[in-house]
Design a protein that fits this description.
Pfam families: ABC_tran, ABC_tran_Xtn. The protein is of the alpha+beta class and 276 residues long. The protein has helices at 15-26, 39-46, 70-105, 112-124, 190-198, 233-240, 243-246, 249-255, 272-275, and strands at residues 3-7, 31-35, 47-48, 51-52, 55-59, 62-66, 150-161, 164-175, 205-210. It is 37% helix and 20% strand. Strand 3 and strand 4 form a beta hairpin. Helix 3 (70-105) runs antiparallel to helix 4 (112-124).
Amino acid sequence: PDLLLLDEPTNHLDIESMQWLENYLQNFKGAMIIVSHDRYFLDKILQTPKGTTGIWEIDFGGFRRYRTNYTGFLQESQIRKQRLIQAAKIQEKRIKEIREFIMRNRANKSKSKLVKSREKYLERMERIQIESERKKIKVQFPVEEIHSRRLVELNNISKVYNGKTIFSSINLSIERGDRIALIGKNGAGKSTLCRIIAGYEHSTQGVRKSSEKLKIGTFSHEILLKLDLLNTVLDEAIKDASPEVNQTLRKFLGLFLFSGDDIYKKIEVLSGGEKT
């Protein structure tokens, strides 16, 4: 193709596939437009042998171009915003001075022409607009004291699907404070292992142990497949909410930036990020 239009091309790719995609796009001779939230991927792709191509930003109803990579865009956009804020302050000071002049001299016939001139100047003045900060999602999880050092332990875990061994002889323990990245090719069994760790799925062999009163929070891309696209945001939230949460559900949705009539939007019209 001469032109590639790629919308979130890195979603669900394993590391090996990501590396292949990066290499392919870096050597692609045609043009490409990429929609992505992966800043590291964007930085790599936008640094081509011919130099940086650029960022197109759509925000607050406007469209801007930056001839830099994503890291440079973050820096330039912040500098631009600070300059706008400074220019707006200077303009507001000037507007205040002109208005004070008009108020002082409105009744002075000898300065009536100057007053009218200042009034027309204010009418024609193009005001500097500062984009207000976007609302941010406000979510807090209750902090509870963790008494156990060892949270989950897997002993000699194996998993077989339809006669095929996905993995075997896994022995591991997860302790308080651990930070673990689970990597592997697509189909290697990463999600399956996570479900076994969470206790949502049984292993074919082996034993899973967990501490008493263990609470596990999970998030998976598979949750999107369970959404009813014909439901509204509010209906979908009610479906999974506990009775005590139902009373404050609108406020809860507001924390995720669904306010006003947004809660009546159909799931099918939401963006991928909004669905998540």
